[in-house]
Design a protein that fits this description.
19 helices; Rossmann fold; binds 1-deoxynojirimycin; about 25% helix; 5-stranded parallel sheet
Length: about 775
C-alpha cells in the first residue's frame, strides 16, 4: 500500500526509538526522558509511551500543534479543500472529521503517512451515533430496551460498518443526563437516569471499541458532552447549565465515570457552561476530575468550535485567550476552529501556556493513535465493505422490537392478530427518512423498511393505507376525507404519528412537545368513526397528548426506530412479539411539568395524594392558605402521564418470594435481594425487573428513589425464574457535604418494582 519514495516513518525517529528501547532494557537512567515514564518496560503500554517519547523528541512546535488540529468540513460538503491537503503535508493536521469518500480517506492518510514530516497517521472521525448504514433506534430508544447487550451488539455492528469505510473514531456515546424532553438532544441520550445511562455507556464503549482496539473493526468511542449539556435551562439547546457540585457528582458525572472505567478512548468537551465556566475551558472538570481523579489517559476533543465559542460566552476576550483557556484545561484537540493553530506557539513563547502542557496533549493524542494500531496499520481495505449484512439487519430489528414501549392497551386492543382489516394512516407510516431519526448522516431512506412496507408485504394481512397528512407538521387537511373513508371500511386504525427526524437532535428544541401539525385534529376526526385507534408514536422525545389520549385505545412509543422499524412494529402489532420496552424518561402530561424526573428530592412538603385539590375544585373566594397544599401544580397535579421504567406487555408478571439476605449490613458488606418472576399471561414475553432504593435520612437530602439494578428476562407462559440482585453498601454512597463519597449509616428502603412509582414490594434494611 505504501507507494511514495520517501520513508514513511522517519529513520531518525526509528533510530532514537531503538536507542531509547535499549536504554530502557538496560535500566539506564542517563536520558532525561527516562524519568518521565515507567523505569521498566513491562507492558505494551510502556512501549507505546517510549514510542511517543521518541516521536515527540523529534517534533517541531508546529508539528505538535498540528496534532491538536481536527479539520474537516461540514457534513454537507463533499470535497476536501486543497489548502487542507497542503496543511497536512506540513504536519499541521492530526485528525479529520466528516471525510466520507473512501478515496479521500485513503489519499489523506497517504499524505499524512508518506509526505508529512513525521509520518504520523491521521484518525478519521464521524458521528456514528446509532448505526452507520444499518440504523438502530435512536439512543433514547435503545435505553428503553433496558438491554445493554443489544446496545453493545448495535455499537459493534456500527463499528464494523463504519471502519469498513475508513472511520476509526466515532463521536459517541452521548452520556448527557437529560430531564427535560424539550431539549432536542434528549433523543441522543440514555434518558434521565444515571444508573441506566452508565450501563448503556459501558455497552456502547465495549461495542464500538471491541476487545482489542488494534482490530481494524474497532473504532475509538467518545464520551460526550463533558459535562452538564443536558441540563440546558428550559431545554433550550446550548443553554446555561447550573448544576451544584453534589448533583454534578451524584447524577451528571456518573455515566462519564462508567465510560472511563470501561476504557473509553476519547472525551468531548461540551458547548455549555457549567456554573459559569464553559466546559471547554473548565480546568476543574477536565483536569481535576477527568485526569487527576479518574486517571483518564485518552484525549479530549472540543466540540465543534467550542473553544472559540468561549468568546460569545463572555469567558474569553478573543481567539488567543480562548486557545489559552482550552489548552490550559487540556482540551487536547480542537474541532474545526483554528485558535490553537494560530496562537499556541505565541502563547507558549509568552509563557501563557507551557510547552509541557502541549506535550501532554500531543502525548494523549498519539497514545490513542498507537492503541488503535494506526502506526502499524494506517490504512483500511476499501474493497472489504461490510454494510447491511443480514445479521446487522436482524440485530437492528431486535433492538427496535425491544425499544418499543406499550403505554396503553384498553380492552386488549393489541395484539391485532391476523384477521382484522387494518387502516394504516398517518404521516409517519411510510417515511423511510423520518423513522431513521436524528444523527444519521450515513443512513439511507431507500434501505429503510417502513411500517407500510412491512405490513403490506405480509400477504396474510388486509391493510389499506391512506396517509391523511404528508408530514408531521402538515396543517393541510385535504387528505383527511380519504383517510376517514379508509378508516370506515376497516376494523381498526393504526395511526403512525410523531415528529419528523429534524424536530429533535442538536439545535432542535421545542417548547411545546405535543404532536405537531394537524395530527391531533386528524386523530379526533378518526375517533368519530368509532373504530379502535392504535396510536404509534415515532419521535425523538416523549410527546404530550392530553387532548387525544382518551380517544385512542392503545399507544405504542416506537421512538425513531431505524432501518428495521417497520418489521419490528409489525411483529408487535400482530402479536408475533410482545412489547418489552420501558421508559428511560418520565413522560409528562403537559408542557408545564418539565423538567420532570423520577429521582427528585422529597421537599419539606411532599405530595399527599389524599389531600390534593384540583384547580376547578377550589371554591370561589377560598381563603388564602397554603395548608394542605404540597409540591404540585393545581392544574397538572403531581403525577406524570407515565413514570420512568413503565411499559406494558401482552402478558402479565407476578413477583413473589421476595427476600433480603439480611436486614442489617455494615459498610463493608453486600446484600442480596431475590425475587421469583412468573409469566402469568398467555404470551412469551420479556419483563424488566427493577430494583430501587432510598436512603431515608442523609447529611445531604437524598432522592425519593434511585435505580440500583435491573434485569430483563424472557419467560414462556407459566414459566418462573429466580433473580437475585447483589449490591455492596459502597454502591449506596453519595457525594456529600464534605465533598467526598460517603456511605452513611441509617435506614434504607428497597423496592422490587415494575417502574419507578411501583411501591408494591417494599423492603427495609439498616446500614450500621
Ligand atoms: C456538534 C455536536 O454537539 C457533537 O455532538 C458532534 O459530535 C459534533 N458537532 C461533530 O459533528
Amino acid at each position: 500500500m505504501l507507494t511514495g519514495n520517501r520513508p514513511h516513518l522517519p529513520t531518525a525517529s526509528l533510530i532514537l526509538m531503538g536507542i531509547l528501547l535499549i536504554m530502557y532494557a538496560c535500566n539506564s537512567t542517563s536520558v532525561s526522558k527516562v524519568s518521565q515514564v515507567s523505569p521498566k518496560i513491562e507492558s505494551s503500554q510502556d512501549i507505546i509511551e517510549l514510542k511517543i517519547d521518541s516521536i515527540l523528541a523529534l517534533m517541531t512546535l508546529q508539528e505538535k500543534i498540528g496534532q491538536t488540529a481536527q479539520r474537516g468540513k461540514s457534513s454537507r460538503v463533499k470535497d476536501i479543500p486543497p489548502e487542507l491537503k497542503e496543511a497536512l503535508k506540513k504536519g499541521e493536521i492530526g485528525s479529520f472529521l466528516n471525510v466520507t469518500s473512501k478515496e479521500d480517506v485513503t489519499e489523506l492518510q497517504r499524505i499524512a503517512v508518506e509526505e508529512s514530516p513525521r509520518g504520523i497517521p491521521l484518525i478519521f472521525a464521524r458521528d456514528v451515533i446509532h448505526g452507520y448504514k444499518t440504523i438502530f433506534p435512536i439512543p433514547l430508544g435503545q435505553a428503553a430496551t433496558f438491554n445493554p447487550s443489544l446496545t453493545e451488539k448495535g455499537a459493534r455492528i456500527a463499528a464494523i460498518e463504519a471502519s469498513s469505510n475508513g472511520i476509526r473514531w466515532t463521536f459517541a456515546p452521548m452520556l448527557d443526563i437529560s430531564r427535560d424532553p424539550r431539549w432536542g438532544r434528549i433523543s441522543e441520550s440514555g434518558g434521565e437516569d444515571p444508573y441506566l445511562t452508565s450501563r448503556m455507556a459501558e455497552a456502547y464503549v465495549k461495542g464500538f471499541q471491541g476487545d482489542d482496539l488494534t482490530d481494524p473493526t474497532s473504532i475509538a468511542a467518545c464520551a460526550k458532552h463533558f459535562v452538564g449539556y443536558g441540563a440546558a435551562e428550559g431545554g433550550r439547546d446550548y443553554n446555561t447549565a447550573n448544576i451544584n457540585d453534589f448533583s454534578l457528582h451524584n447524577n451528571y458525572l456518573k455515566p462519564f465515570k462508567a465510560s472511563v472505567d470501561a476504557g473509553v478512548a476519547t472525551f468531548m468537551s461540551g458547548f455549555n457552561e457549567v456554573n459559569g465556566v464553559p466546559a471547554s475551558g473548565n480546568q476543574y472538570l477536565m483536569r481535576s476530575i477527568l485526569r487527576e481523579e479518574w486517571g483518564f489517559d485518552g484525549f479530549v476533543v472540543s466540540d465543534w468550535e467550542s473553544i472559540i465559542e468561549m468568546i460569545p460566552h463572555g469567558f474569553a476576550a478573543d481567539e488567543k485567550h480562548a486557545a489559552a483557556l482550552g489548552a490550559n484545561a487540556m482540551v487536547d484537540m480542537e474541532m474545526t476552529s483554528t485558535s490553537y493553530q494560530q496562537y499556541l506557539a505565541e502563547l507558549i513563547a509568552e509563557g501563557k501556556v507551557s510547552e509541557e502542557i502541549l506535550d501532554e496533549m500531543v502525548r494523549n493524542i498519539l497514545r490513542i493513535k498507537y492503541r488503535l494500531g494506526l502506526f502499524d496499520n494506517p490504512y483500511f481495505d476499501p474493497s472489504d465493505e461490510k454494510l447491511y449484512a443480514p445479521e446487522h439487519l436482524d440485530a437492528a430489528k431486535q433492538s427496535a422490537l425491544e425499544s418499543m414501549v406499550l403505554l396503553k392497551n384498553n380492552r386488549n386492543t393489541l395484539p391485532l392478530g391476523r384477521t382484522k382489516k387494518i387502516a394504516l394512516i398517518g404521516p409517519l407510516a411510510d417515511k423511510g427518512h423520518e423513522q431513521l431519526g436524528t444523527w444519521t448522516f450515513d443512513g439511507e431512506k431507500n434501505k429503510t423498511i417502513t411500517p407500510k412496507m412491512a405490513l403490506q408485504k405480509d400477504r396474510s394481512l388486509d391493510v389499506t393505507f391512506s396517509e391523511g397528512l404528508s408530514f408531521s407538521r402538515d396543517l393541510n387537511k385535504d387528505k383527511f376525507e380519504a383517510a376517514i373513508q379508509t378508516a370506515e371500511s376497516a376494523d381498526v386504525i393504526v395511526f403512525c404519528a410523531g415528529e419528523e427526524a429534524i424536530l429533535s437532535g442538536e439545535a432542535h428544541s421545542r417548547a411545546d412537545i405535543s404532536l405537531p401539525g394537524a395530527q391531533e385534529e386528524l386523530i379526533l376526526e378518526l375517533a368519530k368513526t368509532g373504530k379502535p385507534i392504535i396510536l404509534v408514536v415515532m419521535a425523538g422525545r416523549p410527546i404530550t397528548f392530553e387532548r387525544i389520549i382518551d380517544k385512542v385505545d392503545a399507544v405504542i412509543m416506537a421512538w425513531h426506530p431505524g432501518t428495521m422499524g417497520g418489521p419490528a412494529l409489525k411483529d408487535i402489532l400482530i402479536g408475533d412479539a410482545s412489547p418489552s420496552g420501558k421508559l428511560p424518561v418520565t413522560w409528562p402530561k403537559m408542557n408545564g411539568q418539565m423538567p420532570i424526573y423520577y429521582n427528585h428530592k422529597m421537599t419539606g412538603r411532599p405530595v399527599k395524594p389524599d389531600e390534593f385539590v384540583e384547580m376547578y375544585e377550589i371554591p370561589i373566594e377560598a381563603w388564602q392558605s397554603s395548608l394542605g397544599n404540597t409540591t404540585h401544580y393545581l392544574d397538572a397535579g403531581y403525577l406524570p402521564a407515565f413514570p420512568f421504567g413503565f411499559g406494558m406487555s401482552y402478558s402479565s408478571f407476578d413477583y413473589s418470594n421476595i427476600t433480603l439476605s439480611s436486614t442489617k449490613i455494615t459498610k463493608d458488606e453486600a446484600l442480596t435481594v431475590t425475587v421469583t418472576v412468573k409469566n402469568t399471561g398467555n404470551y412469551q414475553a420479556q419483563e424488566t425487573v427493577q430494583l430501587y432504593f432510598r436512603d431515608m435520612v442523609g447529611s445531604l437530602t437524598r432522592p425519593v428513589k434511585e435505580l440500583l439494578r435491573f434485569e430483563k428476562v424472557l419467560l414462556k407462559p407459566g414459566e418462573s425464574k429466580n433473580l437475585s440482585f447483589t449490591f455492596t453498601a459502597q454502591e449506596l454512597a453519595f457525594y456529600g457535604p464534605s465533598k467526598k463519597w460517603i456511605v452513611e449509616p441509617g435506614t434504607f428502603k428497597l423496592w422490587v418494582a415494575k417502574h419507578a412509582m411501583d411501591t408494591t414490594n417494599e423492603l427495609e434494611f439498616t446500614l450500621e
